[in-house]
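Example (one chain per record):
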Amino acid sequence: MRFAFALAFSDPTHFVELARTADAAGWDAVALSDHVFFPERLASPYPYQPDGKPFWEPSTPWPDPWVAIGAMAGVTTRLRFLTNVYVLPARHPFVVAKAAGTAAVLSHDRVLLGIGVGWMREEFELLGQDFTTRGRRTDEAIAVLRTLWRGGMVEHHGRFYDFDRLEMSPAPSRPVPIYVGGESEPALRRAARLGDGWISVLHTREELAALIARINALRAECGRAREPFDFVVSCSDAFDADGYRRLEEVGATTLLTMPWVLYGGDLNLLDTKRRGLERFAADVIARLR
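Predicted structure:
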């Protein structure tokens, strides 16, 4: 089992120090969330709450993941960086390929691109991207990203993206792994067919077991059952080493958590988060290795 911690809703000025702490303590990865803005009047329903309303305030910070990754990569040597999740179809794939590829080069291939199709129509409209075709464009954008990251002169001729031979440099020494987030049937199929991994939202162990089994069945249908695949999970009923071992038994490979919420203290303080990272590393990570 690998271990990643999430920085969503944290003070961005804490990021660098938390990355340095996690790198020294033995964490495997850090996850960063993504939104460009929040409108004062939000009509789009948030899909992961029964009432359709986000559980955070519009003033919640959402720093640019690539700027944050660059800052954290500069003070770490082994920690990997996962976007959880980057709203891929809200941007042109050229922009995403350049940002993620550059981050991979400068971090020595420590970047994992977690992507989702997005849910906020307002974000797409103000960024000049079509909301209604976002799923189909995501599938094609994944192909475009992998083409551009090959380096050298490449071309692509698809339904949504079309370009003659060009070169994007620098290119990473190997393709950036692409993880797919989401729990809808199209998202699970996309992960199985196109992804190098899958990222869950918060679920029980029983729910995760069913979702992992479903993705593995879909991967088998695609002829990908023997390919490496990472299941990044957040679990609502596992809180210790024994619980995480049980997650491994159902196929989970990476646990994503916010360790500081397990130990109490003022969650707005950098020191609380730092101590949470260190204590979890000692109590859990060290025991499972």
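Caption: Residues 137 and 160 are 6 Å apart (CA to CA).
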